[in-house]
């Protein structure tokens, strides 16, 4: 399904209230819930791991989209699959054996995603397109929410859409998505838009209506 889907990133949610935040954003129109896992090694920030994913799972009705910004990946795949991740995305830069990693993700029963940092060309995933369900184009350098969208990535999205052809592979955009940048990537062929700060700004679990307005504005 190539219709446009909004995947709010709980990186910008209240970390003390993940369950309620997930329920609130789904009630306000989120299509997927994007979960950013960071290890302080692959990226210069630490968030949380599989236990937190398992804890929030019952609070998400739809797709739990887990973005692993960790290295190594392979020792943790089964833990994230057991936590109930629907999609597990690993970075092509996270190790020398991304092909093995993607095989293991599907082997664990999840959909497989591959992410590319802004400095990595589209060609880095050309040999992987038959074994993924999603390609994530980072439009910021991963590690933090609220960064500025890197415009040079729009052309990469266009290239990937052409490379993917008629394969059933989503193109997800992650970083700096807001009402100004969303149309650029949607037009270039992306169908899943991750947005953290642009969704959560102005709202809270006790006043979630701004989440809905922000999602509609994207
Ligand atoms: C960045 C994360 C993103 C981030 C997006 O490392 O992977 O998912 O939360 O946040 P915004 O939308 O604020 O750029
Ligand atoms: Zn992410």
Please name the defining characteristics of this protein.
TIM Barrel, 218 residues, single chain, binds D-xylitol-5-phosphate, 8 strands, 8-stranded parallel β-sheet, alpha/beta, 8 helices, globular, binds zinc ion
Describe the structure.
With 218 residues, this protein is α/β, with parallel strands linked by helices. Helix content is 30%, strand content 20%. Strand 6, helix 5 and strand 7 form a beta-alpha-beta unit. The site of zinc ion has 6 residues, from strand 2.
What is this structure, in a nutshell?
About 30% of the residues lie in helices and about 20% in strands.
The CATH architecture: Alpha-Beta Barrel
Proportion of beta-strand residues: 15-25%
CATH superfamily: Aldolase class I
Uncertain runs are none
Give the CA-CA distance, first to last residue.
Answer: 19 Å
Rg value? 16 Å
The count of domains is 1
Instruction: Give the overall form.
Output: globular
Per DSSP, the total helix count is: 8
CATH fold name = TIM Barrel
Number of strands: 8
Bound molecules: D-xylitol-5-phosphate, zinc ion
Given helix and strand content, the structural type is: alpha/beta
């Amino acid at each position: 399904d190539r219709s446009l889907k909004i995947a709010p990133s709980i990186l910008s949610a209240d970390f003390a209230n993940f369950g309620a935040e997930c329920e609130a954003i789904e009630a306000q129109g989120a299509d997927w819930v994007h979960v950013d896992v960071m290890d302080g090694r692959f990226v210069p920030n630490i968030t949380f791991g599989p236990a937190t994913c398992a804890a929030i799972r019952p609070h998400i009705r739809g797709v739990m989209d887990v973005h692993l910004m960790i290295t190594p990946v392979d020792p943790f795949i089964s833990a994230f699959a057991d936590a109930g991740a629907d999609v597990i995305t690993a970075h092509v830069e996270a190790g020398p054996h991304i092909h093995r990693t993607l095989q293991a993700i599907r082997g664990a029963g999840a959909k497989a995603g591959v992410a590319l940092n802004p400095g990595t060309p589209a060609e880095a995933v050309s040999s992987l397109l038959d074994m993924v369900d999603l390609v994530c184009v980072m439009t910021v350098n991963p590690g933090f929410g609220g960064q500025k969208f890197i415009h040079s990535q729009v052309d990469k999205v266009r290239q990937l859409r052409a490379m993917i052809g008629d394969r059933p592979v989503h193109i997800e955009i992650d970083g700096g998505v807001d009402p100004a940048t969303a149309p650029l990537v949607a037009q270039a062929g992306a169908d899943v838009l991750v947005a953290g700060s642009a969704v959560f700004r102005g709202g809270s679990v006790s006043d979630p209506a701004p989440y809905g307005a922000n999602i509609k504005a994207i």
